[in-house]
Amino acid sequence: MARPATGNVVTRKLATGVTRYSLRFRAHGQRVYETLGTDADGWDSARAHEALEDRLAEVRLGAYVTARRGNGTVENTAELTFHEFGSQWLAMVEPELAATTVDSIRWRLSYVLLPFFQHHKLSEISVSEVDRYRAAKVRERDLLKAAREAGEQTDRRPLSNSTINRTIGLLAQILDVAVEYGHLPANPARGKRRKLKASRPQRPYLDSARQIAALLDAAAELDHESRADRQHVNRRAQLATLLFAGLRISEFLALQWRDVDLAGSWLTVGRSKTDAGRRKVKIRPVLRDALVELRVGIEPAPSAFVFGTAAGKPQNPSNVRARVVARAVQRANERLQEAGEAPMPALTPHGLRRSFASLLYGIGEPPPVVMAEMGHTDPALALAIYALAMRRDEGENERLRALVDGVDLPGLGIGGSHVPNSSARGSYRPVVRA
Prior knowledge:
The protein is mostly helical. The chain has helices at about 45-60, 80-95, 100-115, 125-150, 160-180, 210-225, 235-245, 250-255, 285-295, 315-340, 350-360, 365-375, 380-390, 395-405; strands at about 5-15, 20-25, 30-40, 260, 265-270, 280, 420-425, 425. The chain has two domains: about 5-195, Tyrosine recombinase, N-terminal domain (DNA polymerase, domain 1, Orthogonal Bundle), CATH 1.10.150; about 210-425, hpI Integrase, Chain A, CATH 1.10.443. The protein contains 14 helices and eight strands. The longest helix has 23 residues, at about 125-150.
């Protein structure tokens, strides 16, 4: 019987005053000592233990790839490792990037690229090594999928081909600078053959007033059932903002009350990943009602987050996806099933953003307005959704206009009687009625 994978986190206080975190564990019958980084690089005890759990899981699944180390000759002792150069690169570009982009890069570096490349000297990263990395990630993905299908409990999700390709893209970005600095003659991570085939995902979205109304009513129902200490969550207001303002998840999380002009009916997006993303979005009646209800009984500071945590901090995007969007979709589908209606697809915040574009076309907004309110300069997405939206009949467009204007329309709903007429946050009138 194989010995269970075990290991421990090793911390060492360096003469410079920083603390270095390393891992010690066994893999393939050998003892492995892996340096993670220092607290100056963002490492701490909790993060180091998470990394240890990941390595041990890889060992158990047979997916751990022992990192190659330099041979320590006189010629390569001064050469930078990928870990060292990657850390320098991140420190150089971080001031120019949004915080959410930096977090994404740190995750790809710390949890995907560094476990494989951290001990490689830059000159050791060849085309064949990039291909070996890609093959290792595919094997790890397949093993994790098999483990999940076998019912094994694992907190790690298999990486998709697109995600693996994004890590190779990040590797190529870093090595571009290494080439410019003269550390490499050419970039081994560049080229279409380095990446996996990945189909462009078809992101589901809502394009009917009936399903949008069902989702909002389900969120209100969940709000009414929430504990007293969870009333600040207000799923309905969150979903209404994602649906009727078309915000990216990063824009939604950063939204502050100073950005919300209820009197003038404009919402300002001042923090976005693109210049076009900084824009104004019209606050239409159904969204205005939700935001007004959210402010009942409170006088928030201008800098307060509209949808922050109970402690006033920004929400975690995973919580929005799992606890707000996914739960509301699940409840809405239960109600739709009871009414003999077809269920709505699994949705993400990005799917709600696409729903917003489809909805704008339904109420008669032209493509330039849709592009401006979406924060797009490339018309491809707006026109693709436009082509689909034009297939709707005028009766459906009438229902969408009534929904956006907050007008009751007979036959729209799936059973608003499921939602009480009052909640802990004040009165609530269902979007749809039986």
